[in-house]
Amino acid sequence: MTTLTHATFTRMDESTAEDWVASIPAHQHVEQGLADRVLRELRDLASGPQGFAVDRLVHSIQTAHRAEKAGRDDEYLVCALVHDIGDLLTPNNHPDLAAAILKPFVSEANLWMVQMHGVFQGYYFWHHVGLDRNSRDAYTDHPHYDRCAEFCAEYDMPAFDPSYPTPPLEHYEPLVRSFFAPRA
Question: What is the pTM of this model?
Answer without folding.
Answer: 0.87
